[in-house]
Amino acid sequence: MDLGIAGKWALVGGASKGLGWGCASALAHEGVNVVMVARGAEALEASVARLRSQTAGRVQVLGVACDITTAEGREAIWSVQGGPGKDFDIVVTNAGGPPTGDFRDFDREAWIKAVDANMLTPIELIKATVDGMAARGFGRIINITSSAVKAPIDILGLSNGARSGLTGFVAGLARSGVAAKGVTINNLLPGKFDTDRLAATLQGAVQKTGKSLDEVRNAQTAQIPAKRFGNPEEFGAICAFLCSQHAGYINGQNILPDGGLYPGTF
Ligand code: NAD
Fold this sequence. Notes:
With 266 residues, this protein is α/β, with parallel strands linked by helices. The protein has helices at residues 18-29, 41-55, 71-78, 108-136, 157-174, 196-209, 213-222, 232-242; strands at 9-12, 33-38, 61-65, 90-93, 139-144, 183-188, 254-255.
C-alpha cells in the first residue's frame, strides 16, 4: 500500500532509539523527510547515519541533538539547517518517560518535570505546527503516550497524571476547527515494547526480586496474550499508517498496541 506521504516532512522526538526510532524509520521508508531529535548526540548521529544509509539518499534525514523539553531545544529544531522551519506535515511527539516511585516521594519539582516533558512539551510542539498544517490542508500529529493512560499503574503516578492531562487536551483540540482542514491528532499508547526503557525496567525487577533476567522476562510476557513484547518496527508501522493519506478519518483516538494485554472490551 502506498501511504501517499512521500515528500512530506516529519519531526520525530526521541528518535535515536526505541519507539521514536521505529517511527522515524518507518516514515523515512515511506519517502518522508525526517528531522530526528534526541538528547545524546552520539547515539543520534549513529541513528541518523543508519537511516541515511538505509534510505540511500531517497529522503532527507536531519538530526538535532537537544532536550526537546526546553524552549532552546525546540528553537534548535525550528532553525535546523535544511529543515522545514515550523512547516512540518507530521509531528510525532515523544520524550523519555518519568521515573517510577511512590507518589509520597514525588515533590513539586518531580511533578513539574513530568508535566513539562509529557504534557506541555507535546502541547508546545503542536502549538508551533498545527495552524501551518491546517493552512496547507494536511497534518498528522501522533503523541506517543502510554498504556498507563488507559490502565494506570500505581508506581507510574507521574506518567498516569501528566499523560492523562495531554490526552484530555488533545481530545478537545482534535475535534476543533483543525479537523475540517485535514489535520488529525491521535495518541499511540504503547504496552510493553522491547526498548532500552523496557530493559531498564526489567533490570530493576531483577534487582528487586533476585530472579534472573530470563525469569523476569518470561513472567511478564506470560501475562500478554501475544506471549511476547512488541518491537519498535511494528510500532513504527502503526505510526506511519496513522500518518498516511488513508488515515484521514481516524482522529482524536487513543490507539493501544499492547498484544492484547488490556483486558477490557473497549
Ligand atoms: P527509549 O529509552 O528506548 O528511547 C527514548 C528516546 O527518547 C531516546 O532517543 C532519547 O534520546 C530520547 N529522549 C529522552 N528524553 C528526551 C528529551 N528530553 N529530549 C529529547 N530526546 C529525549 O524509550 P522508549 O521505550 O522508546 O519510550 C518512548 C516513550 O514511550 C517514553 O515516554 C516511554 O515512557 C513511553 N513508553 C514506552 C513503553 C515501552 O514498553 N517501551 C511503554 C509505555 C510507554
